[in-house]
């Protein structure tokens, strides 16, 4: 039989043997883990990618396998980056800025902060990653959300295609009546994003923008009314008229120019200060761009209460960050003299200071909880 049919198949035997030997040698080079059924079940995607590269190597050679490996690795990197681009999503108004407000406005605002959605991003923003991010933002937003903040503090770079996706997201949300801002956008990225993308230095400033936008929609009849001559602000709430006038007579006026400082960390004055106009920012170091903002207070609000109460040195810097401000100072010595004359009224002032401190402690606790989550 071999003599009769060998002419048709015998010359293929050496080639078949060589091919079989090469296939066997290739199989011996495959790591044992790739033959594991358990590995295939637990990491199916990685297992399939590994076999794809191996088959390309077997059929087309090493160069093609290298190219295939690079393509697969790039695909995997983009897929994983897209899957983890949203580090945190906060839809219930859990975050608040360090811009402090009086109790009436703060309570009204707190009940409406669930209109603000905050998305914390991470990783390099390329076209595929940004497209996935934008799609996820659109999907998770609820009808009540009117302000969206993208926190880009963990995004090291944006490419031009990601910027296009960002601009498209801003445009789509605006058409739905939703305003969007990007926090912690570096200057170069903000410049390339264009004027249509609202950018802020950090998440704290972006949250303040959202809060101010919500308060701007507050009906006039729901806005708190304060006395026209409200020199003591929140410190004097509940004081009888005679005692109030007596305490107001002890106040000393101070003008603070734009970018001017009121006190620095380590100062030993113990005055209590009340803002009459403008805003005062408390930071870890001055100028504010070089430190962390701790709080910003506006008209009718007091600051410096810790040194006033415990006599310790100042623990922060305070100044007029955005423009000039007008203040009233109350020295602890003058207050003590007044308190001996009006002890019941002094208890009212101390109770007001305690409530101010409790509200600010609650704000700090909320901010720490958000950071640790």
UniProtKB/TrEMBL annotation:
Positions of the Cyclic nucleotide-binding domain: 235-335
Regions that span the bilayer: 12-30, 51-78
The keyword Membrane belongs to this UniProt entry's keyword annotation: yes
Cleavable signal peptide: none
Key words, A-Z: Membrane, Transmembrane, Transmembrane helix
InterPro entries for this protein: cNMP-bd_dom, cNMP-bd_dom_sf, Membrane-Transporter-like, RmlC-like_jellyroll, STAS_dom, STAS_dom_sf
CDD domains: CAP_ED (cd00038), STAS_SulP_like_sulfate_transporter (cd07042)
Domain STAS: 114-184
Source organism superkingdom: Bacteria
Full protein name: Cyclic nucleotide-binding
């Amino acid at each position: 039989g071999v003599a009769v049919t060998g002419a048709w198949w015998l010359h293929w035997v050496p080639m078949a043997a060589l091919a079989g030997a090469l296939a066997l040698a290739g199989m011996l080079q495959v790591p044992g883990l790739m033959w594991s059924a358990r590995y295939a079940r637990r990491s199916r995607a990685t297992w399939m990618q590994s076999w794809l590269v191996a088959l390309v190597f077997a059929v087309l050679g090493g160069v093609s396998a290298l190219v295939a490996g690079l393509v697969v690795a790039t695909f995997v990197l983009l897929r994983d980056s897209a899957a983890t681009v949203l580090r945190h999503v906060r839809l219930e108004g859990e975050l608040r800025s360090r811009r402090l407000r009086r109790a009436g406005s703060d309570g009204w605002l707190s009940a409406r902060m669930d209109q603000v959605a905050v998305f914390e991003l991470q990783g390099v923003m390329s076209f595929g990653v940004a497209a996935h991010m934008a799609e996820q933002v659109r999907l998770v937003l609820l009808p009540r959300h009117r302000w969206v903040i993208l926190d880009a503090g963990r995004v090291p770079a944006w490419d031009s295609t990601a910027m296009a996706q960002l601009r498209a997201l801003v445009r789509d949300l605006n058409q739905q009546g939703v305003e969007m801002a990007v926090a912690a956008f570096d200057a170069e990225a903000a410049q390339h994003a264009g004027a249509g993308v609202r950018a802020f230095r950090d998440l704290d400033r972006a949250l303040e923008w959202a809060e101010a936008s919500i308060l701007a929609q507050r009906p006039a009849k729901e806005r708190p009314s304060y006395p026209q001559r409200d020199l003591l602000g929140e410190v004097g709430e509940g004081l009888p008229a005679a005692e109030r006038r007596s305490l107001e007579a002890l106040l000393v006026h101070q003008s603070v120019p734009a970018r001017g400082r009121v006190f620095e960390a380590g100062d030993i004055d113990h005055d209590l200060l009340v803002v009459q106009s403008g805003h005062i920012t408390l930071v870890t170091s001055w100028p504010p761009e070089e430190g962390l903002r701790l709080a910003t207070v506006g008209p009718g609000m007091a600051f410096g209460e810790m040194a006033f109460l415990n006599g310790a040195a100042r623990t922060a810097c305070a100044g007029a960050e955005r423009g000039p401000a007008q203040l009233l100072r109350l020295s602890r010595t003058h207050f003590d003299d007044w308190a001996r004359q009006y002890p019941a009224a002094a208890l009212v002032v101390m109770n007001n200071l305690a409530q101010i401190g409790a509200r600010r402690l609650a704000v700090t606790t909320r901010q720490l909880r958000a950071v640790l989550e």
